[in-house]
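Run log // design_07
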C-alpha cells in the first residue's frame, strides 16, 4: 500500500511539473548537466553531455520551437518542448555535444526580457539569433575545438542556418525537419507571417566552405519535404536527404545513428 501511495504521489508531482521541469528531469535521467550563460538581453541554458574534453569536434544541438501556442489559440506561458526529442537524439551521439537553449526556453520565460513574442512572432528574430551567437562564441572561447557542427531540429534548423556564418569554428551545419523558408511554411499552413522573424531562405548568408546537410521526413506534414528540398537546391555545398516513412517527430531516434554517420562523413 505504501509503495502504491509513493507511486501515485510521484505521478501527481510529475503531472503538476512545468514543461521546463519535465525537460530538466529528462536531461538528468540521460546524464546531462546544465549551466546558464547570458548575453546583454537574454539568459540561456546549456545542457552538456559527458566527455566534452574528448575530441576535436563538437556537435551543437538546437531545439525546435517547442510549444509556442496551446491548442493553437493561447500563447503558452512556457514554450519548452513537451517532447524532449532533442535530448534523446543528443543522448545517442558519441561525439562531444551540447544543447544550446533558445532565449526564454527551459524555465527562463519569466525572465524580464522574455516577452512572449520571442517564442511566437519573433521566434527567429535578429535579437534571438544575435544572443545565441554571442553566448555560443563565449562558451567556445573557453574550449579548444577545431570543428563545430550545428545540428538544428525543426525551428532550431532555421536558427542554425541564421547563426552558421557567425559562430567560430563552424565547418558544417545539419538540419532535420527544419523550417528553412518561413514564408513558404506560413503560406502552406495558412498562418500569419512571422513578421518579426528572419527567414533563412532570404537572410542566411552561409559561405560555401561551410558544408550543409538538410534532412527531411517524407511524411512530415508540419514542415513538408518540398520546403527543405527547395532550400537545399538553392544552396552551395549542400546535400539533401529524404527519409521514408518519417514524419515530423516520429521516429528520428530510430534512424539517428545512421544519420549521424551521414552528417559526420559529408
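design_07 sequence
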Amino acid at each position: 500500500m505504501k509503495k502504491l501511495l509513493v507511486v501515485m504521489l510521484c505521478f501527481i508531482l510529475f503531472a503538476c511539473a512545468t514543461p521546463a521541469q519535465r525537460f530538466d528531469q529528462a536531461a538528468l535521467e540521460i546524464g546531462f548537466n546544465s549551466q546558464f550563460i547570458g548575453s546583454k538581453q537574454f539568459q540561456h541554458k546549456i545542457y552538456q553531455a559527458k566527455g566534452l574534453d574528448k575530441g576535436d569536434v563538437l556537435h551543437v544541438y538546437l531545439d525546435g520551437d517547442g510549444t509556442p501556442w496551446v491548442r493553437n489559440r493561447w500563447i503558452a506561458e512556457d514554450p519548452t518542448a513537451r517532447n524532449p526529442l532533442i535530448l534523446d537524439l543528443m543522448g545517442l551521439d558519441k561525439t562531444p555535444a551540447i544543447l544550446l537553449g533558445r532565449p526564454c526556453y527551459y524555465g527562463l520565460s519569466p525572465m524580464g526580457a522574455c516577452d512572449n513574442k520571442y517564442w511566437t512572432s519573433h521566434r527567429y528574430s535578429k535579437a534571438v539569433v544575435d544572443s545565441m551567437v554571442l553566448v555560443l562564441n563565449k562558451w567556445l572561447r573557453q574550449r579548444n575545438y577545431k570543428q563545430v557542427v550545428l545540428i538544428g531540429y525543426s525551428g532550431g534548423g532555421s536558427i542554425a542556418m541564421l547563426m552558421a556564418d557567425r559562430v567560430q569554428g563552424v565547418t558544417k551545419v545539419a538540419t532535420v525537419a527544419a523550417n528553412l523558408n518561413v514564408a513558404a511554411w506560413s503560406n502552406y499552413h495558412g498562418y500569419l507571417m512571422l513578421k518579426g522573424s528572419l527567414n533563412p531562405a532570404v537572410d542566411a548568408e552561409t559561405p560555401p566552405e561551410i558544408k550543409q546537410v538538410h534532412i527531411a521526413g517524407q511524411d512530415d506534414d508540419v514542415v513538408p519535404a518540398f520546403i527543405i528540398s527547395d532550400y537545399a537546391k538553392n544552396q552551395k555545398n549542400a546535400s539533401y536527404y529524404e527519409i521514408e516513412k518519417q514524419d515530423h517527430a516520429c521516429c528520428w531516434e530510430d534512424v539517428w545513428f545512421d544519420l549521424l554517420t551521414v552528417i559526420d562523413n559529408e
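The CA atoms of residues 132 and 218 lie 30 Å apart.
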